Amino acid sequence: MAETEDFVGQEPHPDEKLETRTRRVLSNTYQKLIQSVFLDDSIPNGVKYLINRLLTLIEKPSLDAIYIGLFGSTGAGKSSLINAIIQQAMFLPVSGESLCTSCIVQVRSGCCEQYEAKIHLLSDQEWKEELKTLTKLLHRTEELGGEEVDAWDRDEVMEEAIWKLQILYGNGAEKKNYEELLRAKPKGKIPTSRIITLKAEEAGELSVKLDPYIRTKRRDWLGESAETQIWPLIKHVEVTLPKSELIPEGVVLVDIPGTGDFNSKRDEMWKKTIDKCSVIWVISDIERVSGGRAHEDLLNESIKACQRGFCRDIALVVTKTDKLYLPEYLRERKVGNQAIQSQREAVLERNEMIKIQRNRILKEKLKRKLPVDCKVLEASNVVYTVSAQEYWQQALLTEEETEIPKLREYIRKRLLDKKRRMVTKYVTEAFGLLLLTDSFSCTDNLPSEYLHMSGLRGFVEEKIQLLEKAIDRCFAPIVQPLQEGVRNARTSYRRILGACLVRSRGNRGFHQTLKAVCLKNGIYASRTLARIDLNAAITQPIYDQIDPVFGGIFRAGTPTNSALIPHIDAFKHSLQEKMMEIGIRNGRKHDSYKKSFLIQEISAILGGLEEHILRKKRKIYESLTTSVQNDLKPCYEEAAQITGKKACERMKDIIRRGVDRQVAEGMFERAQERMQHQFQQLKNGITEKVKSSIATMLTLASSQGDGLYKELADVKSEYKEMEKLHRSLREVAENAVLRQGMQDFLLRMSPSKAGPPRT
Predict the structure, then answer these.
(1) Cα 252 vs. chain centroid, distance in angstroms?
(2) pTM score, two decimals?
(3) Contact status, residue 433 vs residue 602, Cβ threshold 8 Å
């Protein structure tokens, strides 16, 4: 990848230069405007609007971070993979037999010169809520019979609860009640800010300081440091590296362990972190990739993130691919007749087979859940086979063959593409504002010569009505699969619920797990056990029906009756075309400036709707499980109070009867109605935002001189500079195409690297 890295370089990217110069022009313009109106008692509305828009653009962040989520079970190799990507061998602690990553860890690079980590702790109130649940879980008001005592003693959930309390408050804490523990003083020191900041000059130094906070020792581990004494309070960790070309500024790698957390706030953050990732890499080591419930659960959760969150790309990253027992592989090998000469050849052949097989399986699974034109389905390959160990040692594989450089290149391209789109939009918006600013300071036109808007209001009202009808058509296809899903859920919920409540070994070790499920309203998540979500399980038949249609509603691309965002784009273009017609008909310079400004403003206003829609999407998608959870809350609360003999069976019975009762009373139908209501609210929100924003635009466009015109400071030099920057956008785009062509040529012509010498 040496040829590729040459294109990254140390010099600022052309897009960054464009953005920097644009911000400088905007700042100069803003300062001139402020100075020219500073002593005025009355500032025209148009000038106020312009000043506010300039300030908004100046303060706008350079780029919303790209979150790449590494989603996998404990020991899958997430931390090792991040270490290899950032070129720091043992920076994040790697899970071993006695240790495991205990919380979400975010890694990014910044402009700082030091390595820095911020450990965010639960607030006092958030910990009190968990403490109350933990003590309820451990509290027994009645003596249990022999079977239940054995189950109690072996229950993983209870051991986890005891362990947390002992770490924080010392031995014997599990015997104290909630009020006693509130008065108890934690063993570790807790800062009042609930944030612990660590800094170091070198990566290794910070790694040593950070290690105790983000790795949790197993319960049988005797050693204990002061830092590990506050582990149960840690919410998440943010790590910032000095500026790096390997992980460019604007990219955040997120180590997402396990399947959630028992603490409600940490569990909610777990879901939100997944949902804000635009890319998810499902991490699975080579020995577990071909099966296992944990791998399938992680993949299903990632696909859900595509439906409800910002995720646009999913890939399977198979780790530890240097592992291979050659005699066994040769015995089971069924590929061709070519003889395998070495361990290296066997590893490469096996890895290629894994890629082909898992790529086909993953794409088939994605096709069942996502729209047929979803971008992730267009990718030729959605599987990577990596080896962090071989990246450092290169005993069997070359650096290229470990595929770590390929992941780095993917990150770089993703960032550059997003940066280019952002800069194009930013420079275009800025140019529109400078057009109008220059027209304000132009004295060649009298105030009465304003942009004639005859017929435009009626045109806009008509287009908004058409947009409302288009949105109705977008949402209409969801009704039938919703109804079919509800019918399927009604016929299958007992079977699904039974599978969740029955364990192959009976109730042994399940009593307190079930109690924890009830205390958390049907959901239980821990670092060691598979996630249990009764609400999601019994609503899954509905999701199975609606998923492809739901994804189709929120996809971008060619306008169809079922795609929402392309209809909004079409609405935007129709308004802009109308503005162009008016500008051509009037033909005056002053009107032309305002016309160009309004065209850009329409684009900016309606462009912001996409982010609004994506934020609302999650609430709509989760409305089914939220509705079911709310309806079942009374039966969960009742079951959580059960103690004494046969408590586990009695809890199961309460849950079964409670679900039966709610289904009979229309629980699934209510969930359907609530989802449809959420769609209606989204439609209303879109039309209201469009109406109010466009009304503001029309008011500015049709204002008389007293509302829009004012002689301001001369900004002609800023306007000319902005005009040059706007023209250079096309040059940057053309150069980017040329560089990509040169890079592709060099990569095709470069000789492949030879493997490491055999020993």
Answers:
(1) 11
(2) 0.84
(3) no
